[in-house]
Amino acid sequence: MRPIIQSKKLQNVRYDVRGPILVEAQRLESEGHDILKLNIGNTAPFGFRAPESIVANMVHNLQDSQGYSDSKGIWPARTAVAHYYQSHGLRDTTVEDVIIGNGVSELITMVLQAFTDDGNEILVPAPDYPLWTGAVSLAGGTPVHYRCDESNGWNPDLEDIESKITENTYALVIINPNNPTGAVYSEETVKALVDIARRHELVVMADEIYEKIIYDDAVHHHAATFAGDDVLCLTFSGLSKAYRVCGYRAGWVMISGPKHIAEDFLEGLTLLANMRMCANVPAQHAIQTALGGYQSIDDLVAPGGRMYEQIKLASGLLNDIPGVSCVEPRGALYCFPRLDPEVYPIEDDQEFVLDLLRSKKILVTHGTGFNWFEPDHFRLVTLPDSEILTEAIGRIADHLATLR
After folding, report:
1. Which fold has domain 8-48+299-401?
2. Is the whole model's pTM more than 0.85, yes or no?
3. Which tens digits make up the pLDDT trace of 107-139?
């Protein structure tokens, strides 16, 4: 019989956050082992609950959520998103500039399918959230990774970006605050990134899902603020992280800039929105309440708050391990430590995290899974409480001691 194989379109698509290592973790669980999963930023399993007002509003509207909504989203949700960006200086934002999706992940895929032709090059940061690289490849494009500089707080290397722009380059992806590094870009850096897009007539795709999860004196700057009316900017955000409702799948993309030159692209994006009928309707009712109500995330990311204290604890404990260095995250929910190759001559970082999983029952993600260039990093989620984090990093330290 003719073998049934996967599409060749998947040849360069990877998503190692939930890849072969998770499969091994599930096998170990089936044998009765308890696995501490620090591979994915899923808030609920670690005791971070959604604000009661968001849940109540969604439940209240369940009876009215049984049918399809407008393919771009319900009017109150889109209005709330538009008002949110208006209040952040983007005063020309209208309801028509907003599309609601089943989380940012779906919208990234939709946008790239509507935008990308075979061979188009899209600039993506390294390290990146791997969905971006995979979605570019799946759409037929070529992801071109620009380096973020660990010695400079994981800020994008602007010269490296410039050197990688060709006549086939069409867009620049900005992930700020960054997953996996926790970098939060300064106003100067965001302006410089947008200026590169302006000079080379690139579309900016700004992934800002962690915009409210920032620490100490870090300030988040929307890329769209600096794009003006001459750079098309697609801003992605949503409720998953800041409002602790990952499973609700409520996200949006906001389009700003010279929309008159993008009418054909936007028509294609609307077509894809229509084809998937609509986003999850009950969760759309949570958006207006979330954006308009008390911002409980502020307490969690302030000194004394769980997210703040846990990310500080994790980065400190990692830096205490011989041969390990971790740039202190300024945002998001992760640490991305480096293993000194002189101390830990690791050639295959996927094998390293598999060995860690089998020996210490800790599940993390290897750095090359985020399209980093060398096998010398891994990503650790900082969502467990302080006691569990301390235990987990202690186990990692014990494992590394066997490698030194």
Report:
1. Aspartate Aminotransferase, domain 1 (3.90.1150)
2. yes
3. 999 999 999 999 999 999 999 999 999 999 999
